[in-house]
Amino acid sequence: MENKIKLFNQQKIRSHWDQENEKWLFSIVDIVMVLTESSNPQVYWRVLKKRLAAEGNETVTNCNGLKMEAADGKMRLTDVADTEQMLRLIQSIPSPKAEPFKQWLAKVGSQRIEETENPELTIDRAMQTYLQKGYSKEWINQRLKSIEVRKELTDEWENRGVRAGNEFATLRRNCLPLLMKTKL
């Protein structure tokens, strides 16, 4: 994937796909600007970063710098965060625009706790999500079966001593399509 600009309510958020870690990275200053409407988001971020560090927030320590294209067209170093770090930072921004994110995070957190207590809820949520995206029930059932087959297969490989990583990837790529055809 290449560098992309993400839109948030018609405002641009610079982002970058980190191929090595398979994660999106987002410009923190852009998120701060959107959520706070600060005239100087760099200063806002600098102050917020100091406050969070003083509170012992590890997220700030783990943010990295990445060169991204600035408004003037030049490549400039900017602090970036992955999705998890960004969601944690949003929780620390006192702004009415951040409140919907905070409410959503509380709802998702509550759902995940419920799913820990009753794992069947996870399957129900996945089915509802796929239906909302327009997938047919037949497609959803096929998808759930393929997940089950993949889980059985990887469990068997683990039982036989196959280590995670490249060995799993190679076996999945070569064996899983064949197994799916025979099981379904």
From TrEMBL:
Task: Please indicate which superkingdom the organism of origin belongs to.
Answer: Bacteria
| One Pfam family per UniProt | Bro-N
Q: Where is the Bro-N domain?
A: 12-111
- This protein is called Bro-N domain-containing protein
Species the sequence originates in:
Dyadobacter arcticus
